[in-house]
Amino acid sequence: MRLVRYRAHDKPTEKIGLEMETDILDILRLARHLNTSLPQTMEDLIEHSGDGLKQIQDTLNKAHDLHLNLKDYLIPTAEIIYLPLIKNPEKILCVGMNYVEHIKATDGEVPTDPIFFSKFSNALAAHKQKIPLSANAEHVDYEAELVIVIGKSVNSVREKEAGEAILGYTIGNDLSERNFQFESSQWLIGKTMDYFAPVGPALVTKDEIRDCQDLTIQTKRNGKIVQNSSTKDMLFDVNKLVSQASQFMTLKPGDLIFTGTPTGVILEKPKEQQDWLKTGDNIEITIESLGTLTNTFV
User: Fold this and answer.
1) pTM over 0.85
2) What is the pLDDT confidence band of residue 18, given thresholds at 50, 70 and 90?
3) What is the b/e burial string over 58-88, where b = at least 16 CB atoms within 10 angstroms of the residue's CB?
4) How far apart, in Å, are the Cα atoms of 67 and each of 32, 33, 34, 70?
5) What is the 8-class DSSP label of residue 109?
6) Which of 5, 125, 180, 247 has a CB 3.0–4.6 Å from the CB of 198, allowing a cystine?
7) CA-to-CA distance for 37 and 88, rounded, in angstroms?
8) Does residue 264 contact residue 106 with C-beta atoms inside 8 Å?
9) Nearest to 46 by CA among 12, 95, 92, 89
10) 239: three-class secondary structure by DSSP
């Protein structure tokens, strides 16, 4: 399934829907018509992911059996405002130096274990949301990333069982203010400025993904390709990341793990060629099977 969190332009109420090519299926309105019960928020759905996903599938099956026309429940994406997929995750973990070619391009030291850091919920932003550049943010960089969405509480999980905790995946942009990032060894202040963690457009459940370690990942800046790689280049795969993080903390449903960025970021360029993000720039991040996350900077 391809789940989205959104609201209508003229209404404040958040809703969950299913991404259906160019439109969104209003699954909650369909459920009301069929007098069936569904989780009303993404948080409720993720908290009870197994039951919630089954309820959605049962609703779709019932609509099919009754020969309902799903087109009657579709909303054009032009009529909605996307919201961050998760409203307030307990944790937003990020992984640094996790793509081999990126490590080489930055002359970085190859880590023996995943390098974790964090963002806070203030950094969350949505697909198509305009991202403000603060006046003091003069060295802002893009980072295309595969993002893990946790669907089950786990602690000290073994690597071979870590996949059971993963509900699905989405696309993220680990925006970074490079000067601030390196003011301390913790990277934090350059990583969690307001709206510096766009995610979306959809939470794609893991059953939709053939192999999360073999997905093309590409970034376009104003239409020009600047990152073009594959998740095959990851140093530590998703199961390793989930397992390793769970050795130190309990991962909870709704937690997000940004898994690192491939080569092609602005930081890798010689200083005289570093053209940092500026007002009017448009960034499109496409990951195979997941879609495209788009944001413009203002």
Assistant:
1) yes
2) very high
3) ebbeebeeeeeebeebbbebeebbbbbbbee
4) 16, 13, 12, 9
5) P
6) 125
7) 24
8) no
9) 89
10) helix
